[in-house]
Structure formats: structure tokens, C-alpha cells
Amino acid sequence: MEEKDLKYKMKVWTKKHKKKAPFHSMVLAALLAVPFFGHQWIDKPDMPQETRPDDVDFRISMVGDMMLGRHVRDAAVRSGEPIGRVFDYVTPYFKESDYVTGNFENPVIDAENPEVEAVMEDFELRNKDIHLYADKGAEEALVDAGFDSVNLANNHMMDYGNLSLEETLKHMEDLDLDLLGIGRALDPAEGMFEEEETLTDAGEIHYFDANGRNIAILGFTDVFVQGYSASEYVGGVLTNAGLGVLQSRIREAKEQADIVMVHTHWGDEYQVGSNDTQETLAYLMTDMGADVIIGHHSHVLEPITRVHIERDPDDPQSEDKTSIVMNSLGNFVFDQGWSRTKDSTLAQLDFLQGGGAELSFIPMQISDTRPRETDGILKPFRDYRIFRTLRKELDDQLWRMEDGRLVIDLKKAGVIEG
Questions:
Q1: DSSP β-bridge partners for residue 102
Q2: How many other CB atoms are found less than 10 A from the CB of residue 414?
Q3: CA 385, CA 36: separation in Å to the nearest integer?
Q4: How far is CA 28 from CA 21, 23, 86, 104, in A?
């Protein structure tokens, strides 16, 4: 009897809920869609307004790895927008900066040229596992967004060998954009090239004026493929193979400039922390005269560190040397999917009108290949994770939280007086 009652009840329940099944399915589908598409509604960003405080005399904005090819290109095609869409939500920050720089992690290649395409296919078959490139036109997106310089000394700039070098210089060297860490030679001898305009030095120091302060900037990579290092007679990027040139250039820059900034491509991919080589190189560059080290390559954020070298008491001419090291600013424009690779930051070095200098960090999140300031219901969690990583190795006396930013007092840190 009980068995019949149970069967009857199941039959009634099934009949009753069969009518509601389509509705229940729709509700379930909506709930399942949230993790995949919900960021479009939950984290819908607002365009930033008035990003620059009144007391800032000069602002330098710095970002990490930018790759405008592969799935970043695909996302732009799907959207029907130009590749410059990736900077839509950060351009306001750049426009209110006086100088903008970042690491550009791909060559610019005209892949629609049949001759170029044939060379590219040959390299993809025999050279390395991952080959990155951006289409011709990506370089204009950098300029339109407001970049003043980009570091090209990295492990993907020469993915297609000499083709990468020549295509990139062909499309980029005439732009109003300083190219750091790349050239047709390293410390080339005078008269080496027939045409003077082709004399591009991979170790060239670039200078810019910051309202009376002379700033030097150059680029270098510790991560590279053998054979692609620039040398006296060979084009390429400035690598650890040219460490002696890097040392001499930093010394030269320190003699000519008030502040020396070095883009450095180094470390281990996806490791949230610096390695022994990074620490050694940071010490070496600080000893040579570097004040600000802009690190990238790991595709994740790494802690900021302060390097301090005390003066030699036996040398009356020596003095203390201190630098601030951003071991990795993480990705800025990329197509990687792990949550850590989507955590990003926009670093801003501010010289203040009343004297002094501060280094602040805006929490960023990459969504649909585009960076923008963290927003929505997940903002507190994201900000906590980003700031916890960045300040992990800093003395508590050197940093503070202000208006949703991590701020480091560089005067108190002994790096920049202002």
C-alpha cells in the first residue's frame, strides 16, 4: 500500500512540476551565466573623472606587460572596434599624466604581406613554442592612448628573428614614441651604417624634462632567446649579454640626469615573488645609479622592494644609494585567463608642488582583454589581494592607503627628494 502511495505521489509531483520545467530551466540558465558573463553587469565600469590631484606638479604613469596580438586581436575583431579599444578605460589616466611608459611585449608585423607571412611560418615551425606579434596599426594605438615610450627589450620582441626587428623599427621608429632597449646594434661604432638615420642603439638612454628635473629612462631584459641580443654589429634587444653596456649606460645617465628609470624584464613567470637573480640585478643597478626600476615579465603582480646601499666609510666621495623596485607590474593588456594574471595596477610617480615625491598604485582588473580600475561587488576582494601583494615587503612606515590607492612616500624612503 505504501509503495503504491509513493508511486502516486511521485506521479503527481512530476506532472505538477513538468509545467514549470521551462521556467525553472530559464532560472537555472541565468544563474549559471553569471560566472561567465556576469562581470558585464556586476562590474560595469564608470569612466574615471579628474584623476589628477591639484598638488601634482608632474606625473609619470607606468604599466606592465602589453600584448596586442593573439586573442586580444580576436576580441577587437569580434567587437567590431579597432585594437585601440583596449585602452578605453585607462586613457583618461594617461591624458592627465605628463609622461606614460610601459612594456610592449610583441613585435609589430605586417602579416598580410605574403613575403613577410612566409618568413613568419618558417619561424613558427622551427624556433620556439610561443610566437607573439601585433598587426600593423597597433603602434598607432599606443600613441593615441598617450604613451611617450615603450620598452621593447623583452623575450617576445624577437620572436620572428631579424624580421621582428626590421618590421618593428619600420613601423615604429618614425612615431613620436621613444623605443627603449632595441636597435640595429649595441654601442655601434661611428660610421658603421651608410645612412646616419639607421644608427639605432639598443642601449640608448632617452631623456625627458619633468618641469626642471632631468629624467633618464632605458630598457633591458634578463629573459631572452640566445642569438637575439644586440651587439656591436648585430641588431636586437639589450639583454644580460650586454650587462657591461647596461652598467656603463646607467652610470652615464646618472651623471646627466636627476633621476634614472630602468625598464627591466626579468624574473619567473607566474611567480608572485622575486628570485635571487632579480635581487642581484636590482642591487647592481642601484649601485650604478638607478632610482626607479620598472619590472615586468612574470604576468602577475610582485611585491615592491626598497634597495638601500650604505656609503663606504673608507671612501669620502661615496654616498648612500637607494632605489624603489617594482619587481613586476603584472599584465596590463593581455589575454591570459588565470585570475592572478588579470590582477593589474597603474603605477604613478608624482612630483608634488610643495616638494617631495610619491609613488601610487591604482588597482586594475583586466576584463575582455581591457584594463580598468577595479569596480563592482568584487572590488574589496580584488583591491585587498592586489595591495597585499604590492606592499608585502615594504616597511609599514613607508606606505599608506589614500583614496583607494597604495601610496609610497619616496622622500621618506630616501629615493627621491622631490
A1: 150
A2: 16
A3: 21
A4: 10, 9, 33, 42
- For the four alpha carbons of 134, 136, 141 and 144, in that order, the dihedral sign comes to positive
Mean pLDDT of 4-8: 57
The pLDDT tens digits of the residues spanning 381-407 come to: 999 999 999 999 999 999 999 999 999
End-to-end CA distance of the chain: 90
Q: What are the grid coordinates assigned to 198, written together?
A: 639607421
As given in the structure block, the three cell numbers for residue 75 are 576580441
| pTM as predicted | 0.88
Could you tell me the three cell numbers for 297? Answer: 615579465
Nine cell digits for residue 242: 650586454
Cβ-based burial of 373 (10 A; exposed 0-12, middle 13-18, buried ≥19): buried
Burial of 252 (0-12, 13-18, 19+ CB in 10 A): middle
Classify residue 62 as exposed, middle or buried by CB count within 10 Å of its CB (0-12, 13-18, 19+): buried
- Among 285, 359, 295, 303, residue whose Cα is nearest residue 328: 295
- 23's enclosing H/E stretch is helix 21-37
Helices (H), 268-378: 276-288, 339-342
Rounded distance between C-alpha atoms, residue 113 and residue 377, angstroms: 46
All 3 cell numbers of residue 116?
A: 613577410
How far is the C-alpha of 307 from the C-alpha of 285, rounded, in Å?
A: 10
CB 146 within 8 A of CB 94: yes
Q: Taking 90 as the threshold, does the pLDDT of residue 91 lie above it?
A: yes
Contact 146, 100 (CB under 8 A): yes
Strand locations in 4-98 (E)? 56-66
Render pLDDT for 348-365 as a digit per residue (tens, 0 to 9).
999 999 899 999 999 999
| 386 phi/psi in degrees, rounded to 5 | -65, -50
Measured between alpha carbons, how far is 261 from 250 in angstroms, rounded to an integer? 9
